[in-house]
Structure formats: structure tokens, C-alpha cells
Amino acid sequence: AQSVAQPEDQVNVAEGNPLTVKCTYSVSGNPYLFWYVQYPNRGLQFLLKYITGDNLVKGSYGFEAEFNKSQTSFHLKKPSALVSDSALYFCAVRDSAGGYQKVTFGTGTKLQVIP
Amino acid sequence: GAGVSQSPSNKVTEKGKDVELRCDPISGHTALYWYRQSLGQGLEFLIYFQGNSAPDKSGLPSDRFSAERTGGSVSTLTIQRTQQEDSAVYLCASTKGGDTQYFGPGTRLTVL
């Protein structure tokens, strides 16, 4: 079975400060990892993914995430937060083994960037 | 070049009525997913299709919920005898190779 944990329901950060949204995962094989963002009253949008290769993945809107196999983590980061980054962020995982393509989402973390 | 579309965008129904929610995935996407998102909550997996078959129906909350996919394309999620706790946003997503999911705008279901 695969699972994802986002330990923080909400993260508050001042505009201009670095932000981190945490995610840990569990899969039996190698993970495919994703971050999605949901802005208020809008649909979910893909931010970035880790499939293989470099552990540091860069995505849209200046976000990046680091895959850490030993800690089974995939934390989302941004060097300088913007008020417009305020949204609901979801981490997701899929086991790369086999043909089954179920993706498991975390419960989401609300990011609030304070002006 | 259309994305995933869902209809209706909003549905208000009375308790006990049946509803059908439709999802049109991106052309060529073989996998299709249904999720449910309650107000302020995370994504609850409902069912997953690979082609027309559903290898995983484990997320369907009860036997009132069913889904089908025909022609490897359009999918319909049916909720029979709706209850107030069924009120939520129902999201559909498609993917080509089990990779990035592309989400539709969702159907907001309100059961009175």
C-alpha cells in the first residue's frame, strides 16, 4: 500500500521569507512524487514532479522540491514567498512498480503568505 | 486542445434523488480518476479506470455510488438515493502514462 503524509494543516509565512511545505511518503517500490496546487475557487494544477534523476526538482512559479530517499520526504520549497502563493498544496505519490497507476494524495496544506 | 471537462459544473438535488456526473478526459489519456473533495478537505480517491476497466473501486463510499467508462473516453459517476453527506466537489482527472494528472474544474454537488 502507498501513502502520503502532510503533517501541517496550515503554514503561515511572511511575504519575502522562504517557505517549506512538508511531505513524506511510503511506497513498496520506487516513488513517483508530485505536488499540485489549488488556488481559491480554481481547479488543481500540476506544480512539479520527481520521477528519476536529480533529487532537486524545479517547477512552476519558482517552486522546487527535494527528493530525499533516506527520509522518504519530498518537501516543497520556495526561496521567497509571494502573497499570490497563498493556496492549498497537495503532495501525491505513485508506486513506479507494476502497471497499476493509482495516485495517492495527501490531505493538503494550506499556505498563507502574510503581507 | 481542450482539457478535462466536467458537467454539470453545479448540481443541486433533493435528498433521495439520483444524480449523474460526467467527465470528458483529454483525448488519448488512458487512465481516468474520480476524487471527492469536501469543503476545506483533501482529496478522497473514489475510483480509477484504466481504459474501460476499473481495477480499483476501493474508494467508492457505498453501493449507492457507481461509475462506468465507455469507449475508453467519457466516464459517468452515478450516485443513487443521494444523502446530504454526499455534498462535495467531485473532481475528475486523466493521465496518459500514470504520470501528471490533469484535473477538470469539478462538479459541485449540493444535496438538500
Account of the protein in words:
The complex is a heterodimer of chains A (115) and B (112). With 115 residues, chain A is mainly beta. Helix content of chain A is 0%, strand content 52%. Chain A has no helices and 12 strands. In chain A, the strands form 3 sheets. In chain A, strands 2, 5, 6, 10, 11 and 12 form a 6-stranded mixed sheet that branches. Chain A has a 4-stranded antiparallel sheet with strand order 3-9-8-7, with no helix packed on it. Chain A has a two-stranded antiparallel sheet with strand order 1-4. In chain A, strand 8 and strand 9 form a beta hairpin. The model of chain A has no long low-confidence stretch (mean pLDDT 92). By secondary structure, chain B is mostly beta strands. In chain B, 0% of the residues lie in helices and 51% in strands. Chain B is built from no helices and 11 strands. In chain B, strands 2, 4, 5, 6, 9, 10 and 11 form a 7-stranded mixed sheet that branches. In chain B, strands 1-3-8-7 form a 4-stranded antiparallel sheet, with no helix packed on it. The termini of chain B are far apart. Classes of the chains: A mainly beta (115), B mainly beta (112). The A-B interface holds A 32, 34, 36, 43-46, 49, 51, 90, 92, 94, 99-108 and B 31, 33, 35, 41-43, 45, 48, 50, 55-56, 91, 93, 95, 98-106.
